[in-house]
Amino acid sequence: MYDELCGFEGKAAAVGGRGKDPVNEPMIRHWCEAMGDTSPAYSGPDAIAPPTMLQAWTMGGLSGHADGTGRATAYDELLALLDGAGYTSVVATDCEQEYRRPLRPGDAVTFDAVIESVSPRKTTRLGTGHFVTTRMDIRAGADGELAGTHRFRILKYAPAPAAVAASASTSPAAVPRERVPDRPTARRPRPVVNRDNRGFWDGIAEHRLLIQRCTGCGTLRFPWLPGCNACASPDWDTVEASGSGTVFSYVVMHHPPFPAFDPPYAVALVELAEGVRMVSNVTGVPYDEVRIGMPVQLEFLRCDEELELPVFRADEPQGSER
User: Are residues 139 and 222 in the same domain?
Assistant: First the structure.
């Protein structure tokens, strides 16, 4: 079957695609607000679009591309072949972007995509399947100048028996809401610690939540970055967070089940008193009592003998009026 899969390499995944909207200032503003990016390069008369928005201009949204552009038949045939072989599940694994020229408000975006590669059969924690990589060339302007390239990789796989069993055992029908789940025995995933964020994790080990501060312009930033997203200065120091915050937004995770986590549980975007935001868990209340605006206070959760994480305990008593 792998020879048949390889036959799709080089075939079109999208032909003659056109962005539903030209590059525009409102979308740039929304993106920057969501990302907390205050760079002056993205506003004003000479504004450019953030490079990482490259794929956003090609997306069809919930309604797709009504003009018929977009995904090509070969890509659908490849996915159907994998489905027929039992690789019925899919998960996005990673993406890579290359930038050639900035996109500016008013640019019309066009794109084509090709099935770049299909991997041999691989076995992962999720199950066994094939990685499919597509490359999208994104062009802009009347001359169709190449603005950038986006490579997107998915895994089409057959779920491992353990994953299927876990999914069945944690479905809403199988787990009564009032039952308190057993404490998970699996270890939580380890955070990736590198030279850019090591200081943050060193602070956590000392029960200190450290926020980066640009010594050039004084802007606070989180998560930790190698340079300032306001003035581009590489110089910084840290300030210690007071630990007070409020729930800015949250989601409740029901699926998929993951070792060391018992769904449903709430994942919150917490706005610290200092003005930056971070993603963490809210403790002290059931998942369905977490609400936007809820005051929370920093605490540290010992997950195992090696891992301790910053979480936030709700300041409000359980069952308080909403």
Answer: no
